[in-house]
């Protein structure tokens, strides 16, 4: 169950990053409220997951999910530029997450 909490926390990190962008500096109410709610839920689920998952692993995976997810949202929905170096960086993050998980086996 802690891994499910960590996964959901990472997905909520993507939500709050996206809605923070949509809030235009917290000047738009609905995206601002979604950002705050998603942040609180993400931190809460991360904290619950950290009861069982070591800090270094939990935090790395949480930020990795958020980083790669925000990158994909930016490219797919916000038409942010994509180039080989950015894709390689995202792949390296994913590889790091896999290695982090494998290191605990």
TrEMBL record:
SUPFAM superfamilies hit by this protein: Multidrug resistance efflux transporter EmrE (SSF103481)
Cellular localization per UniProt: Cell membrane
Topology with respect to the bilayer: Multi-pass membrane protein
Alphabetically ordered keywords of this record: Cell membrane, Membrane, Transmembrane, Transmembrane helix, Transport
Chief place of localization: membrane
Superkingdom of the organism of origin: Bacteria
Transmembrane segments: 27-47, 59-78, 84-102
Family: Belongs to the drug/metabolite transporter (DMT) superfamily. Small multidrug resistance (SMR) (TC 2.A.7.1) family. Gdx/SugE subfamily.
Record-given protein name: Guanidinium exporter
Species this protein is from: Agarivorans gilvus
Gene: sugE
């Amino acid at each position: 169950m802690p891994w499910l909490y960590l996964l959901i926390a990472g997905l909520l990190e993507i939500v709050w990053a996206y809605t923070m962008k949509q809030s235009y500096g917290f000047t738009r109410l609905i995206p601002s409220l979604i950002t705050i709610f998603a942040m609180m839920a993400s931190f809460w689920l991360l904290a619950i997951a950290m009861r069982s998952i070591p800090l270094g692993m939990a935090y790395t995976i949480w930020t990795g999910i958020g980083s790669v997810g925000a990158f994909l949202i930016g490219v797919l929905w916000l038409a942010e530029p994509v180039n080989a170096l950015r894709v390689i960086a995202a792949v390296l993050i994913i590889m790091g997450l896999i290695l982090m998980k494998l290191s605990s086996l």
